[in-house]
Amino acid sequence: MVIVDHNKNIQRIVDRILNDSNLYDKGKTEGKLRDVFFGDPENNDKMAVSQMPYLYVTTRTGLQTSRRDVGISLAENSRQVVVEYELTIVAKSNAKSVESQKQIYDIIKNLTALSETYPTFTNPADNLDPIFTRSVISAVPYDESTRGQLITSISVVLLATIGSTYTINFPGIGDVVFLSRPSNPDGITFDENWEGQDRVVTPSRFFGNFFGEYESTFALDTAFRAKYGVEENVTFKRGSDQRVFKIVYVEINPTASYDTFDRTILHLEIVQ
Fold first, then answer.
1. Which CATH number goes with the domain that contains 196?
2. How many domains does the chain have?
3. Residues 22 and 126 in one domain
4. Residues 185/166, Cβ–Cβ less than 8 Å
5. Where would a tag sit more exposed on the chain, N or C end, judged by fewer CB atoms within 10 A?
6. Same structural domain for residues 80 and 153?
7. Is residue 1, in this structure, part of any structural domain at all?
C-alpha cells in the first residue's frame, strides 16, 4: 500500500534545502536563498515576499499519477506512485534583470547537485528515513511573465517515486534496488518413464533464473564480476515480503544508457 504524505514530503524538501550551505545561509551571501517556504505564497503573489531570492515548495496541478493502467482490488498490490513537486525560485535585482537570472542559474545548479546527492531525500539530521524511492529533476520551466524583469521566477519540477522497490540483498554487496520487477521464471522439470505399458511422469528438479535491471556503477559491476560462478543465498524483497534463493552468478549485461544514466542487466541462475 502506498500512502502519499504531502505535508511530510514538502517539509522534508524544505529541510534539505535549509540544511545545504551551498543553497541557503539566511542571506549572508549574495545570490544564496534568503528563505525557503512550505506551499504557495499568499494569494499566489510571488512579489508578496520581500526576502529575495527565496524558494517555495508545492505540488503541481495533478497531485500524483500511477504507473498502473488498471485499478487494483488488493491494497498490497499498490506498490508505487509518482508525484511531481514544484520548487519555484524567485530572484530580484535592483540593477539589471540579468543579475536576477544569474542568481537563479546558480541556485538551480546547486539544487540539482542536492537532488542528485540525496535522491531519496533522507532526513538531514541523521540521513535516515527516506521519503522517496528515487527522484530526478524532470523539467525547469521559466515563468515567461517575469522573464527579463528585475524580479524573475523559474520552477524546478522534482519527479519523485514513492513506494516499495524490488530489492535483492547480496552477501558482501548489500541491497541492490532494481528499476522494475526482475524477470523470475521458475518451475520443475519432469522425467518421463515407462513401467510396462504405463507412462510415468516424475518430478526431476527445480529450475529458475533471475534477470534484473539496476542502475550500474563501475564498483557494483566489478563486484558482480568477481562473483561469477559463486553459489550463495540471496534474499529477494518487495515491501515486507521476502524469499531466500540459492543462486549462482552467471553474467552481467550492460545496456544502452537511457536519460543520462547507465543500466545493467544481472543474470542469476537459481539452484537447489
1. 2.40.30.200
2. 2
3. yes
4. no
5. C
6. yes
7. no
Would you say residue 133 lies in a domain?
A: yes
Q: Based on the domain organization, do 208 and 265 belong to the same domain?
A: yes
Residue 41 and residue 128 share a domain:
yes
* 33 and 146 co-located in one domain: yes
Rounded Cα distance, 236 and 167, in Å: 6
- How far, in Å, are 20, 53, 142, 160 from residue 88 at the CA level? 17, 10, 10, 16
Amino acid identity for residue 251 in this structure = E
For position 102, which CATH number holds?
Answer: 3.30.2000.10
Q: What is the rounded distance in angstroms from the CA atom of residue 233 to the CA atom of residue 244?
A: 7
Q: Which cell numbers in the block locate residue 136?
A: 530526478
Name the pTM for this structure: 0.81
Task: Give pLDDT tens digits for 80-132.
Answer: 788 999 999 998 888 788 888 899 999 999 999 999 999 999 999 999 999 99
Full residue range of the structural domain in which residue 127 is found: 6-163
How far is the C-alpha of 209 from the C-alpha of 70, rounded, in Å? 28
Helix (H, G, I), strand (E, B) or coil at 3: coil
Residue 253 burial (CB count, 10 A): 12
Are the C-beta atoms of 230 and 254 separated by less than 8 Å? no
